C-alpha cells in the first residue's frame, strides 16, 4: 500500500528500480493556448551541482550516459488520467557521483502563453516499483501556485547507503532557467 506524503515528509524508497510518475490537469485555459508541462531531472553530485551536462534529463536528452535515468518521452498535452510523464530510475547502475536527483516540472513557454501553475490542478508525483508496478509513495501538490512557472515536485537523495524521497513542492517564477543556473 502506497504512502501518501505531505510537503516536507521523507520516506525510504526501498526499490533498486523504480519509476517516477508525474501527473497534472490544466484548467480550461483563458489564454487560449495548450498547456505543455515538462518533467526534468537533475542528477547532482555531493556539491549539489550537475554531475555533468548529460545528467540533466528532459525531453531533448532522454537518458543519462550510464542509462540509469531514462525519461520515457514528452507528453505535449497532459490529456487523460494517470501519469502524464514518467522517468525510470535504476539505482543498481547509477553513476556513483550521483547523490541527489531533483524532479522539476515546468510550463513550456509559460511567459509567452501567460500561463502559470495556478491554472494547473491535480498535480502529483508518485514512485512505483518498476518490476512489480506496486506504488511505493505518492505526493499530491495541493498548493495554489498562482504565479509560479516551475515547481520542484520532489528530490531523491542518498543517505547512509539508502535512497529516500522528500516531498518538496516549492515553486518559483523564473522557469527552468533558474534551475539550470542553480545546478550548473
From TrEMBL:
Keyword Transmembrane helix attached: no
Occurrences of domain TerD (ranges): 1-181
UniProt keyword terms in alphabetical order: Tellurium resistance
GO biological process terms, semicolon-separated: response to tellurium ion
Top-level taxon: Bacteria
Pfam families: TerD (PF02342)
CDD domains tied to this protein: TerD_like
PANTHER family: CAMP-BINDING PROTEIN 1-RELATED, STRESS RESPONSE PROTEIN SCP2
Protein name: Tellurium resistance protein TerD
Organism (species): Frigoriflavimonas asaccharolytica
Amino acid at each position: 500500500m502506497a504512502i501518501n506524503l505531505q510537503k516536507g515528509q521523507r520516506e525510504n524508497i526501498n526499490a533498486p528500480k523504480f519509476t517516477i510518475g508525474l501527473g497534472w490537469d490544466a484548467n480550461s485555459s483563458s489564454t487560449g493556448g495548450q498547456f505543455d508541462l515538462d518533467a526534468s531531472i537533475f542528477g547532482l553530485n555531493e556539491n549539489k551541482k550537475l554531475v555533468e551536462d548529460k545528467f540533466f534529463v528532459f525531453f531533448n536528452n532522454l537518458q543519462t550516459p550510464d542509462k540509469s535515468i531514462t525519461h520515457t518521452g514528452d507528453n505535449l498535452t497532459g490529456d487523460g488520467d494517470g501519469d502524464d510523464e514518467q522517468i525510470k530510475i535504476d539505482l543498481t547502475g547509477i553513476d556513483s557521483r550521483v547523490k541527489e536527483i531533483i524532479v522539476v516540472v515546468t510550463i513550456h513557454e509559460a511567459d509567452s502563453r501567460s500561463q502559470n501553475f495556478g491554472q494547473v490542478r491535480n498535480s502529483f508525483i508518485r514512485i512505483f516499483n518498476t518490476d512489480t508496478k506496486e506504488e511505493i509513495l505518492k505526493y499530491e501538490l495541493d498548493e495554489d501556485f498562482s504565479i509560479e512557472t516551475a515547481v520542484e515536485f520532489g528530490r531523491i537523495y542518498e543517505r547512509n547507503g539508502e535512497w529516500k524521497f522528500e516531498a518538496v513542492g516549492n515553486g518559483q517564477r523564473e522557469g527552468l532557467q533558474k534551475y539550470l543556473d542553480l545546478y550548473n
